Amino acid sequence: MKTMEKNYTVSEGLVLLKQKYFEYAPQNEETLRRAIRSGKLKAQLRRGREGSLIGEKDLLEYGEKYAARRQLLGGGFAAKASALAVPDQGLVRYVDLMQEAMETGEAKEWAFKLRLIEARNRWTERESRLKEQIQKLQAEAEQCRREEGLFDQEIMKRT
């Protein structure tokens, strides 16, 4: 006989995670909703007041990863660091936040370096994509110049 997995609404899921992971659990329902929208948390999407249904196994897997990440970054700091993505808010603001967190003991030096490396990698990837786009546009511009030259030659012949 196959047992049915229990499903939770977002609010029920949040309560379960807070019971299981205490201070390392997500603090509000929007965190779970964002995780569902981004695909980090699998859920059966439903409309209406009840909202999405999350399988217990998926919820606990997400909760375990979330709690481990918060423990790694140092409790209360994790929420601030997650909310402040380096590329979006700017490196200077992020560095200030990290220095403050290290002074208060909320973050470790290696966590700061890791976040900076991740941000640098994102910018490097973006630069590569932009360089590819530039090359394609330059080739397209060269093709346009050639075509323009052919039109000019044809116009000169006809006048």
Structure, described:
The chain is mainly α and 159 residues long. It folds into two domains: 1-73, Arc Repressor Mutant, subunit A (Orthogonal Bundle), CATH 1.10.10; 75-159. It is built from seven helices and two strands, in the order E-H-H-E-H-H-H-H-H. It has helices at 10-21, 29-38, 56-73, 76-83, 86-89, 91-103, 109-158; strands spanning 7-8, 54-55. Strands 1-2 form a two-stranded antiparallel sheet. The chain is elongated and about 85 Å long. Residues 83-89 have low confidence and may be disordered.
What's the arrangement of secondary structure elements?
Elements: E1 7-8, H1 10-21, H2 29-38, E2 54-55, H3 56-73, H4 76-83, H5 86-89, H6 91-103, H7 109-158
What fraction of residues sit in β-strands?
under 5%
Q: Uncertain regions: pLDDT < 50 for 5+ in a row?
A: 83-89
Helix and strand pattern? EHHEHHHHH
Secondary-structure content class: mainly alpha
| Largest sheet, spatial ordering of strands | 1-2
The Cα radius of gyration reads 25 Å
Share of helix, binned:
over 70%
Tell me, briefly, the overall form: elongated
Largest sheet: 2 strands, antiparallel
Average pLDDT, rounded to a whole number, is 80
